[in-house]
Each structure stands twice: as C-alpha cells, then as structure tokens.
Amino acid sequence: MNKGELVDAIASSSELPKKDADAILSAAIDVIMEAVASGDKVTLVGFGSFERRERAAREGRNPQTGEALQIAATRVPAFSAGKLFKERVSG
After folding, report:
1. Where are the chain's structural domains?
2. What average pLDDT does this structure show over 39-57?
C-alpha cells in the first residue's frame, strides 16, 4: 500500500473527502518526523513508537578492496511495533 492507497482507505473509512484525508495524513507524518528529529519519542498506543536512536561510530570494510574505513556516528529513526499491532500481524 502506498500513500495514495492509504489516503483512499482513510477517506472511505472515515467518510472524509480525499483532499481532507490527504491533508490530515500529511500533517500527521510531518508532526511525527519533526518530533523524532528533535529527539522526542512519539507513542501511539497499540500501534507503536517512533524514536531517534544514536548509532555509534564503527569500523567497516570496503567490499571491493577489503580496506578498513571509519563509519561516522549518526542518528537514525526507529520504529517499535506495539502489542496490538504485533498481535494483528501474527494472526
């Protein structure tokens, strides 16, 4: 399912126009991204949690030459599925 299909599904289940459903979904995604980027954790009970995690610097290897190289530390987004989400997926 892509964003357009998700907007269609939201519009049909909530009886909103597609334009409004798209605006709501886009706003929700933007708010989640901004919160996680600033270091906040976003928890949607039953669905899951979005957070920022620190990835430490480490040594890697060039797969073509085998040469060692340093990979810099970075911040990455992470998602942890909630209990209800896990139960629905597992059947």
Report:
1. 3-90
2. 97
